[in-house]
Amino acid sequence: MPYPDRFYPVVDSVAWVARLAALGVGTVQLRAKELGESEALKIVREALAVTAGTATKLVVNDYWRAAIAAGANHLHLGQEDLAELEDADLKAIRDAGLTLGLSTHDDTELEAALRARPDYVALGPIFPTTLKSMRFAPQGIAKITEWKRRVGTIPLVAIGGIKLEQAAAIFAAGADSIAVVSDVTQNADPDARVRAWLGQNAEAA
Question: Among 83, 76, 41, 47, which residue's Cα sits nearest to residue 62?
Answer without folding.
Answer: 76
